Write the structure tokens for this entry.
Amino acid sequence: MLFGQEHVDRYIATDGEEGHDWQGTQTLLLTTTGSRSGQKRTLPLIYGTHGDDHVIVASKGGAPDHPAWYKNLKRDPHVELQVRGDRFPAVARDATPQERTELWPIMTKEWPAYDDYQLKTEREIPVVVLDPVS
């Protein structure tokens, strides 16, 4: 099973042939810029789609604090995505309350544990929309 840096490395090396499909769902690679270090950081995340947008969830398994990647994109929303062999820039933004209502079921279909994660934490888990840049 792929995880962490090994997941990223295999995904990049195979244009997602290894790593896109993962434990019954699908993953993309998200590259953010570290808010303190300024370094690029790439990690695999479960995603869904809505129109032309890709959607991800900042769950951190229901931990009380947001994941580091989410904090990074709040500082600099310009990100890079890799979906299978396609690499492209995008701008990340939190889903509006109305969008979140529509997008949450799409994401729990991809990863049903998101509902459990939300029950474990008092914070509202952010749903992030990744708008492609033309």
